Amino acid sequence: MPADSVAVITDAYYPYHRAVISGVLDVLAARGMAATLYIGKELDTTDWGLGQASGLYDRIDPAMHAGTLVLASTLGKYVSDARLMERLAHLSARPLVMMARDVPSCQRVLVDDRSGMRALMEHLIVGCGRRRFVLMSGLKGHPDSDARESAVREALAEHGVELPEERVAYGGFWSADAREGMQRILQRTRDIDAVVCLNDPMAFAVIEVLQQAGLRVPEDVAVTGFDDTVDAQFNIPPLTTVRQPLAQLGRRAAEALLDRIAGLPPAAERLVLDTELRVRRSCGSPVSIWLRSLMEEDAGDAAPAWIEARLREAAHHPAAAAALQHDWETLLLDGLGRRDDQHALRRHVERAAQRVAATLDAPGRARLHEMLASLYPVFSAVEHFAYRMTHFHQLRHDRFASENMALLGSRQDLHSVLDGCAWYIRNLGLSRYFLATFEPAAEGAPRLARLRLASSPGATVDDGAPYPASQLLPDTLAHELARGHLFVYPLCCADAAYGLILFDAPPGWDLDHEGFAGALSAALHQQHQRAALEAHAQELEAKVRQRTEQLQREVDVRRRAEQALDAANQELRRLAFMDGLTGVANRAAFQQAMTVELAQHRRNGLPLGLILCDVDFFKRYNDHYGHLQGDDCLRRVAQALQQAARRPRDVAARYGGEEFVLLLPETDEAGVQTVARTIREAMDRLAIPHTTSDAASHVTLSLGTVSLRPGPDTLASDLVQAADDALYRAKAGGRNQAVMAPSPPASAG
Q1: Which of 61, 511, 596, 643 is deepest in the core (most CB within 10 A)?
Q2: DSSP string for 279-309
């Protein structure tokens, strides 16, 4: 095993991590090396519930790998170099290479943050004439943050530009914290003309805050970032930033590790890669500078020879230029269907154009540039469409995951939950996967795992013997770790670890790894809670039987045990009809209440009311504030609805995802409208910030309301459909409103 496999350690798989790891995997695949990617959480994080995830690194068996790569910039952002090496000490006997962190005690590949930041500051101060700066820094004590901040301060000092400390905020490399920091600065002063952010997500948040405050970017305030994430070029305005050679970082680190494994002396213990300034509109540079910077991008691999030949022909013959433009438009559009890298295709043309232009006279270069200028709108449109398609696929996956979590949460035992997990995994297009759960163990004892799901036809699941969790897979499947690139995620929730998911992501599989692993974790967590309650109930039943046999005369003791059993059973019933996230009734509870109330209202002839609610633009809320804050938002909305359901028979329930429903027995149209108005007023009082909503600056609801007197043929679905139609009209009418369904004709008695 050690000769064929490399361990890769990181804390997440977001765009930054994905770019670095793509370079690593390219090199390993070319050299025929397998990789196991251990993706837990940051070391020594203070966030509750994440400590179990970082415990994944402690269970890595060094004997399974020939060496280890560590993406240390994010993994160790809360720890010192010494603490980082202490946590990884069990892996240091074999070759180990650090990526993106200057740890003196081992070989490392770094990015020169300082030079890129200095170039950015020179552009802002000299090229753009900006003088009144705000600094949105990252984390105090974080090496990358400190290096970038130091470069900013040095450049300002050299040009005699002051930076008052009240204009420095620490956003923690996190958009939510950066948003709050920028808002506090604007409360003190608006006399600023540039905000320098130490990464791109903070820059996106700062731009939103400035625009909401009535300040134009870049006309009033220039904003810059760092990293050049994929969102940077598609932001409005496109973000000036510093590009880190992330894929190259991964490639060079992988090459260095493989050289060490092969016994070759390291070319350098400390390899530093250059960064590159990417000038775009957010700093106020003219479009001509922005377009010129696009043409100067490094294309990476050489462009196909036919591109250069066709460009050379087009530079000499106008007819050939028109034909080339048509052919290139067709190529780009065909490439969308193949999920080609549109950005790389454009760079191939630009790099080939540079070589052709060097051989042309002035009129030829003018014709070439004119043709390229006509191609840029096509490039931009197709790249933007590809970008939007990626977000569409992510939205579809998020919705699918949300619906699947609701279904899994209703499963009663481990086997049915695992059946649901297998269905979920297969429908995501994963053909190679393994899911293991941890066996109960005494504190301090080695953790054992049992394989529960496997894509390999010959794998033994459920009935197979437990095996050490550090092995990842049982001995019969050890060969699976010696081929391909397996991602390993811990399945953790609420500070408890339930197992591991291993999978090989197919080419083009760009869905959210964190959301996928989170959905599986939540399913196992709910099943574990249910099993614990059932075990508790069984324990109480046993006590009742024992006390009945031994202490028949101790009636009081027996009564207390029976009461405890009843309470446990009631709790089980309550949890079966309660939404685990929000604490209100779930869809099953609503459907049961609807069945009872509909039958009763058919008999008494009184009106039955229903309100169907949807949180406006909730996907945008999750994208900007994160899923943890999104969950908190849903809980607060549910509390507001619960308070509006004041009568004993009123039912407030989570209908699915961000949808809620209120069942209002014996309530006419006026009463339903009053409750809807109460709900909207409650949301206004909550004033949960929602900066990306088109309906309001805070979280709002769209409501579809209905009240009718059920006839003998009225079905529950009739009432729900009427409310859903009204909800659709509320959304189509601009959201943040309640629409009443039209009254149906009176039902025949």
Answers
A1: 511
A2: --GGGT--HHHHHHHHHTS--SSPPPHHHHH
